[in-house]
Specification:
- The chain contains 5 helices and 2 strands.
- With 143 residues, it is mainly alpha-helical.
- It has 2 domains: 33 residues, no CATH class; 104 residues, no CATH class.
- Helix 2 crosses helix 3 and helix 3 crosses helix 4.
- The relative contact order is 0.09.
C-alpha cells in the first residue's frame, strides 16, 4: 500500500497500518517513493543532452549507425542520440533503471559525473543547466 504522508488522513491510515503490523509481529518492507521530476528538472536534463551533443560535435566525434542492410551511416550527435546511446547505457549499467524518470537526483549526478570525467579528460567542461549556468553562458556570448 502507498501512503501520501503529506495528507493528514493518509498519515492516520499509515499509523494504523504500522500499529497493526507491530502488534501482529509482521515482517514488512518500507520503501520511500520519491515524486517524479518537475517539468523544470526534465527540461534541464534534456538541455544537458543538447550541451553534450554540441560538445561531442565540437570534438569532431560522430555517431556511427549500422542498420540498413548492414551499411554504416555516420551522423552528428543530437540530444536524442546522447540520451539513447550514451546516457541510458550508463544509467542502466549503474542503476539497472531503464527510464530517466526512475532516477533520483543523486543518481542523475552520478551519471553526470561519469560524463564529466570523459569530457574533462578532453579539456571540456559541461555544467548541468541551472539558472546561474544559463546566465553565465549568456554573459560569455555577449563578450
Amino acid at each position: 500500500m502507498i501512503y501520501d504522508l503529506s495528507k493528514q488522513n493518509e498519515i492516520y491510515l499509515f499509523q494504523e497500518q504500522c500499529k497493526w503490523l507491530l502488534e501482529n509481529h509482521k515482517v514488512c518492507d518500507l520503501t520511500k517513493k520519491s515524486g517524479k521530476r518537475t517539468i523544470t528538472q526534465n527540461k534541464a536534463l534534456h538541455l544537458y543532452f543538447e550541451h553534450v551533443s554540441k560538445e561531442l560535435n565540437n570534438l569532431g566525434l560522430t555517431f556511427n549507425y549500422t542498420g540498413l542492410k548492414g551499411l554504416e551511416m555516420e551522423m552528428r550527435y543530437n540530444a536524442e542520440l546522447v540520451k539513447a546511446m550514451i546516457w541510458k547505457p550508463i544509467q542502466i549499467t549503474l542503476f539497472k533503471k531503464e527510464s530517466t524518470t526512475e532516477l533520483t537526483t543523486s543518481e542523475i549526478n552520478e551519471v553526470i559525473s561519469v560524463l564529466s570525467k570523459f569530457f574533462s579528460e578532453r579539456g571540456v567542461y559541461i555544467p548541468f543547466p541551472s539558472i546561474q549556468s544559463l546566465i553565465d553562458r549568456y554573459e560569455e556570448t555577449k563578450l
